Amino acid sequence: MNIDLKGRTAVITGGSSGIGLAAALAMGRCGAKIGICGTGKEKLDRAVEQLTRAGVKAFGAVCDVADSGALSVFAGEVEKNLGAISIWVSNAAVYPQYTLLNTPENIWQRTIDVNMKSVFLGGKIALNKMRNSGGVLLNASSFAARMPSVGSGLYAAVKAAVSSMTQTLAAELAPWGIRVCGYAPGVIDTDITHPLIEAGGETMKKTIPMRRFGSSEEAGNVIAFLASDYASYISGVTVEINGGKYCVQNPDEAWTSSGDLIFGGKS
Questions:
Q1: In terms of pTM, does the model score above 0.90?
Q2: Any idea which residues carry the catalytic annotation?
Q3: Lesser CB count within 10 Å: N end or C end of the chain?
Q4: pLDDT-flagged residues of the chain (< 50)
């Protein structure tokens, strides 16, 4: 099965590193032209260079995704450089680490603006750009939307809102031929999560049946699939990319000697 995105232009916000860049590379290698934005010019330039070296036609610009005017200007620049947008990926996010009631008000507002308001703004742009020819809108949720953690409760609450918005947008944009899906990474080894992995990685692995962390590339491949025609009848769902994290209460049991007894021993 070869995913073919030739002739399509995809936008990935927060596309200069991590899962966003991996999705840009995955879709680019499938033939899409790629527009990315980020907040750091140096990192953005490196990402565009990496995409170009991989044979991808790419454009990048610094943009605050919580600023409706700036995001609209960025979308226009993408179309000017790459052509009509048919895929929009609202991937940009911040990950504050505070207990819920100790979160400073400015951090509270910024988290909502970057992680949630940007999804709203991306949906408005997607409708505007795709209403005549259809397309795909993809929104970044998180496993935290299902299972929040002490110390990042605001992030979890906002990502739960994104999952809910994805369901509503799937219905509201369907008449224009626009599919809407979410993707919810579990523990993916990125710059954001690496400090947490370093601090407690072995314990964290015990909650994951596959007993390993995911890679940005694995998440990017799922995003490319959701953007493709192979997912043409998938809409209104958030796909989990988490190695089976917490699919059962005790995933570690299958790896222990008592687990061997349950299954009658390993063959």
A1: yes
A2: 155
A3: C
A4: 267
